[in-house]
């Protein structure tokens, strides 16, 4: 360690003083810009939390950066108005985590087939998947709704969970990751040991995808959690509503007179997403930088 430290010191001395000052100035500028961007991203969330701690009168008076004392009063107001926090939280968790789990597994399995096997029409199938990525989901909403009604699964969670199995974007993401990190030798060794193809994928291949799985899990859960049009089109029973649907009730006459309670309800819907991001954030850079070479 001492030798490495001495080498680094000598390397720094070898750089001209003017270049060191210029490099340090550039680094300082980058850090300042990153801090400013972080503050700009966090400011709306902080203002929402501040409004959740203020009364309607205080909110109408203008913006503030200092918390007030009405947080628990606003929470009590939501409970008095029967805002179904726990029920909708469970509904959103069930739909988001189930659909994301199916998306991750079957997308990874589909992408694995493109790198582990060679078969006729493989490129055509992959090209078809890429084409599907470019088609907006809104174009199929009417046909999908009719299909759901004809199958008698309207007002259930099935059409919100099962279609996640077919996710072209997930297949593309994992295919790119496999192209940079796939180890064919590990698969061949597992086959020689007598493991079946599914056993090889589940026990040998899948553990190597942790960065990609965590990164895609964040995107999938956030997208499903914030999905409003899908549940609005397919659910009609209030007890089955998700968080985005319940938040719309805040715009009705029953709630919109209490801006503090409204802000608190919106903030509550965001907290789970922050927890999910905090749990998986360390994998984001590693998962997104899929083209950096072999691990």
Estimated helix fraction: over 70%
Overall SS class: mainly alpha
Rg calc: 25 Å
Question: Care to count the β-strands?
Answer: 0
Which percent band covers the strand fraction?
A: under 5%
Q: What low-confidence regions span 5 or more consecutive residues with pLDDT below 50?
A: 290-295
**Count of runs of 4 or more consecutive helical residues:** 16
List keywords for this structure.
mainly alpha; 16 helices; disordered C terminus
How would you describe the overall organization of this protein?
The chain is mostly helical. Helices cover 71% and strands 0% of the residues. It is built from 16 helices and no strands. The chain has helices at residues 2-14, 17-52, 56-61, 71-80, 85-116, 122-133, 141-150, 158-161, 168-181, 184-192, 197-205, 210-225, 229-234, 243-247, 259-280, 284-288. The longest helix is centred in the first third of the chain and has 36 residues, at 17-52. It starts with a helix and ends in a 7-residue tail after the last helix. Mean pLDDT is 82; it is low at 290-295.
In short:
With 295 residues, the chain is mainly α. Helix content is 71%, strand content 0%.
Topology:
Elements: H1 2-14, H2 17-52, H3 56-61, H4 71-80, H5 85-116, H6 122-133, H7 141-150, H8 158-161, H9 168-181, H10 184-192, H11 197-205, H12 210-225, H13 229-234, H14 243-247, H15 259-280, H16 284-288
Helix pairs in contact: 2-15, 4-15, 5-9, 5-12, 6-9, 10-11, 12-15
């Amino acid at each position: 360690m001492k030798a490495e430290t001495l080498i680094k010191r000598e390397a720094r001395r070898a750089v001209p003083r003017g270049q060191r000052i210029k490099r340090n100035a550039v680094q300082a500028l980058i850090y300042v810009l990153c801090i400013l961007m972080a503050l700009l991203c966090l400011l709306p969330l902080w203002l929402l939390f501040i409004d959740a701690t203020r009364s309607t009168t205080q909110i109408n008076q203008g913006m503030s950066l200092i918390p007030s004392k009405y947080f628990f009063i606003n929470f009590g107001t939501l409970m008095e108005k029967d805002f179904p926090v726990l029920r909708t939280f469970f509904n959103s968790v069930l739909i988001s985590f189930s659909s994301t789990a199916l998306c991750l597994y079957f997308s990874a399995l589909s992408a694995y087939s493109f790198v582990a096997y060679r078969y006729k029409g493989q490129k055509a199938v992959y090209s078809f998947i890429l084409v599907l990525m470019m088609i907006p989901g809104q174009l199929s909403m009417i046909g999908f709704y009719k299909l759901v009604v004809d199958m008698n699964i309207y007002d259930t969670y099935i059409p919100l969970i099962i279609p996640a199995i077919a996710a072209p974007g997930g297949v593309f993401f994992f295919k790119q990751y496999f192209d940079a990190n796939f180890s064919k030798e590990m698969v061949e060794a597992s086959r020689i040991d007598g493991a079946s193809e599914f056993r090889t994928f589940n026990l040998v291949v899948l553990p190597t995808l942790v960065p990609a799985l965590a990164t895609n899990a964040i995107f999938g859960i956030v997208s499903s959690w914030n999905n409003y049009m899908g549940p609005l089109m397919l659910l009609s029973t209030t007890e089955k509503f998700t968080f985005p649907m319940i938040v719309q009730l805040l715009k009705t006459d029953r709630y919109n007179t209490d801006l503090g309670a409204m802000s608190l309800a919106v903030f509550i819907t965001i907290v789970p997403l922050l927890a999910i991001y905090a749990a998986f954030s360390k994998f984001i850079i590693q998962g997104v930088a899929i083209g950096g070479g072999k691990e």
